Amino acid sequence: MYRTHNCGELSLRNLNNSVTLSGWVQKSRDKGFIIWVDLRDRYGITQLVFDEKRTEKEVYKIAQNLGREFVVQIKGTVIERESKNSNIDTGDIEVLVEKLTILNKAKTPPFTIENQTDGGEELRMQYRYLDIRRNPVKEKLLFRSQVSMAIRNYLTDEGFIDVETPYLIKSTPEGARDFVVPSRMNEGQFYALPQSPQTFKQLLMIGGMDKYFQIVKCFRDEDLRADRQPEFTQIDCEMTFVEQEDILTQFEGLIQSLLEKIKGIKKIPFPRISYDDAIKKYGSDKPDIRFNMTFCELNDLAQGKGFGVFDDQELVVAISVPGGASYSRREIDGLIDWVKRPQIGAKGLIWVKYNEDGTFKSSVDKFFNAADLSAWATFCNSKEGDLILVLSGEAKTTRTQLSALRMELADRLKLRDPNVFAPLWVTDFPLLEWDEQSKRYHAMHHPFTAPKPEHLELLKTNPAAVKANAYDLVLNGNEIGGGSIRIHDQGLQSEMFDLLGFSKEDAKKQFGFLMDAFQYGAPPHGGIAFGLDRLVAILGGEETIRDFIAFPKNNSGRDVMINAPSSLDKNQLEELALKSNLPQT
RNA sequence: GGAAAUGUAGCUUAAUUUGGUUAAAGCGUCGACCUGUCACGUCGAAGACCGCGGGUUCAAGUCCCGUUUUUUCCGCCA
Fold first, then answer.
1. CATH code of the domain made up of A291-412
2. Pairing state between β A93-104 and A44-51
3. Where are the domains of chain A?
4. How many angstroms is C1' of B66 away from CA of A563?
């Protein structure tokens, strides 16, 4: 038997017990006459004592040579410490060791296995198994397991059943790039890894499964970000005989129950906003509503006064920064430079200080008098001491720019408290989006999304105006989930493929199985999918998802620990009937 | 595809602005000492062709060009 107890559970209750422990050497403190060794496992740390007087010579000798991260097993007696340590759970006791076995030696680790490690990101990823021994990473993985279990429990209690769908499926040109897998038995043909189990879950509804969920890996071959990995986990859900309202209620319940179980947050509101309103008020379809600073459109108040930067522009739009009037010239210039960076790309930034004494000072005093500026302030609900910032230009770009500025200011003003949770449903997404590059409509959500029934007629006359029964759940400025009511009518689905520029043949070739299925009694259905990695990270109060994933990829999509991807050897390529243009390395 | 930041002992960083002797410190490692440590302490030692390649110069960690690593962002992510 390797152990009778773990390293986190012994206390004064176990006094004089004979125990066996196994674990890793966290640290050893050799005082010459006495050696303390901190023994660590997942559950905690227990202090071992080796004493010149009380410990056998042979055992003491081995203890002198213990290095960090050695794996050892000990047998000893629980004794009370002479000086206690209130910082750890086992701080009242220590184990006087009688028998010491080195189960495995360890090289000195390349970085310290401590809460505050000296290891950089790259090194930690290369030795991820050592990184996982550290408390912060270990706790994030435990946290993820908790969240995941809470989700399973909730959905199972609600009557959802977990069905697995295949990973080796078919490539489709819509959406993200596919990861592809060559088929040995079908030379020259390829599977694709799923970007989501979308069509399968719809087929499960047609199969009468009624309520389905799956916590499932999905794959997208696109560039990475702090909150984006090429393989990621979705909580994928679908329900039969539901309207949008049923789904919103059901999954509001899921998120609310998570907030309650995981964060102890009692019932909080899940406000709803239409896509159009979100864009108008926040310049974004995933607004962070933990803070205000909503947009106010100044076209009527600011245009026609001879200021060329505003006149003739599609949109003049402002936000009011609380307490911003006290910013120095340098700080404001800093903001102007910030919006002019290529990533934002604004030409400039107009500012108006609404001073504490009620006076105004602005960068456009030449064109606007105090009465004008006062009217802006009233319209924007600004108070004395606020700073009004104005951008103008083409509506879409300007809103995107101001939205980025709004988030940046909120960060600077510390208005994005990770312990505050503000969910928001964004509804009524447009069905389609015009793509300039390919000169055709793209599905904003995906091609299976149902148009709002009252907009069906518009499909023929003005497709861009058609709204869908599609919705996103936004949490603290992050899209954590999205879904829609699906099309279940073969004719309508066929019409959608037409609109998206599919030929009849292509539609049949790629989605014929679904169209066929629609002809055998497809019920109305709809669903939603949540990004688990992101959800867990946000609940854990972090911005990057990497430490919530045991073995993540780096920015270039590489696993630096196992060094993947890598080239295949010649035989393997031949077997798969593949040829590489690149020199093999 | 684009932008910015970045690479110096095992690790984390300094010296780069203004080119000039032997590249500095903390942690870690190793050795000695230490009668209750827990960020143990004291003393000592080893440890770096400054990411790679080229150039300018009497002289390059420092300046220039190229390349590459990692991170963050834009594009992209139905």
1. 3.30.1360.30
2. parallel
3. 12-104, 138-272+422-571, 291-412
4. 27
> Can you say whether residue A188 is alpha, beta or left, with left for phi > 0 and alpha for psi between -120 and 50 degrees?
left
The reported pTM is: 0.94
Query: Does A12-104 carry CATH code 2.40.50.140?
Result: yes
C1' of B48 to CA of A110 (Å) = 17
Nucleotide nearest to A433 (CA to C1'): B78
Q: CA-CA-CA-CA torsion for A468, A469, A470, A475, nearest 10 degrees?
A: 130
Tokens of residue A276, six digits? 């159009």
DSSP A165: -
Whole-angstrom distance, CA of residue A107 vs CA of residue A67:
8
Per residue in A198-214, pLDDT tens?
999 999 999 999 999 99
Q: With a threshold of 0.85, tell me whether the complex ipTM lies above it.
A: yes
Q: Shortest CA–C1' contact from A546: which nucleotide?
A: B71
- Which protein residue's Cα is closest to nucleotide B12 at C1'? A118
pLDDT tens across A325-351, in order? 999 988 898 899 889 888 888 889 999
Task: Look up residue A157 and give its amino acid.
Answer: D
State which nucleotides on strand B lie below 7 Å from a protein beta carbon: 1-3, 10-13, 26-30, 33-41, 69-78
Q: What is the CATH number of domain A138-272+422-571?
A: 3.30.930.10
Per DSSP bridges, beta strands A423-427 and A272-274 are parallel
With vertex at residue A556, the alpha carbon angle to CA A553 and CA A560, rounded to the nearest 5 degrees, is 50
Of the candidates A426, A446, A317, A440, the one whose C-alpha atom is nearest the C-alpha of residue A376 is A317
SS3 A244: helix
Quick one: which residue's CA is nearest to B1's C1'? Answer: A223
Give residue A585's pLDDT. Answer: 45
Q: How far apart are CA A561 and CA A557, in angstroms?
A: 12
Nearest DNA or RNA nucleotide to A220 (CA to C1') = B77
Q: Using alpha carbons only, what angle is made at residue A57 by residues A53 and A58, rounded to the nearest 5 degrees?
A: 150
Residue A511: band (very low, low, confident or very high) from pLDDT cuts 50, 70, 90: very high
- Give CA–CA dist A227/A478, Å, rounded: 10
Helix, strand, coil % in chain A, rounded to nearest 5: 30, 25, 45
CA of A375 to C1' of B75 (A): 39
